Amino acid sequence: MLTDFFKHIFPRVVLKRNLRLSYTFCLGGLAFTAFMIMMATGMLLLIYYQPTPDRAYNSILFLESSVFGGKYLRTLHRLTSHALLVLILLHTLRVILTGAYQRPRQLNWVIGCLLLLLAVFEAYTGYLLPFDQLAFWATQTGMELLTSIPFGGFLRSLLMPDGVGQVLSLLRFYALHIVIIPLGILSLSLLHFYRVRKNKGVLPYL
Predict the structure, then answer these.
(1) Out of 31, 82, 169, 172, which residue is the most buried by the measure of CB atoms under 10 Å away?
(2) Which of 190, 205, 155, 130 is closest to 9 using CA atoms?
(3) What are the boundaries of each domain within the chain?
(4) Quick one: how far is CA 79 from the chain centroid?
(5) Residues 36-64: pLDDT tens digits?
(6) What angle do CA 158, 79, 143 make, to 5 degrees?
(7) pTM over 0.85
């Protein structure tokens, strides 16, 4: 699977006609590129971020005001997260409109939907980390909405055992945002690209 992933990202041969813009627009590849940029910028942000309720916001202020390129780095990370969601949504829409979810690509369609859900959840967990007023109330609203679905109360207690903005809740969002969800997205991306090559996709020379 790993070999097919790298063959898909760095193909040995590319047909000239496939270099032209087409209805696919390489949206999947662009989304994965945005994800890799987020990974790189996120790792740099980790150097200064402090995941505690009393230091999180001040660490963001320090990053933006006292670290060379810190404000640019954080802005790039935030804008790339928006781009990732837009690209995945457009990619999903393209798959629906072209019928690319049909046999034999049903499994890859399910994997793609899981990637979309993980990307949305990744954005949600990252929203709390700056720990400003907007982040606090947006997360609070999201948690209240969560309780309206089946098993929502259990999920809320799992994500936030001590309430929005408390030590354990912030730490769990932090762990989800920087480790658990990115590893899930990366693993599913590997499987997604592997299935594209296995099903030949729209590239007959694979």
Answers:
(1) 31
(2) 190
(3) 2-6+24-198
(4) 12
(5) 999 999 999 999 999 999 999 999 999 99
(6) 20
(7) yes
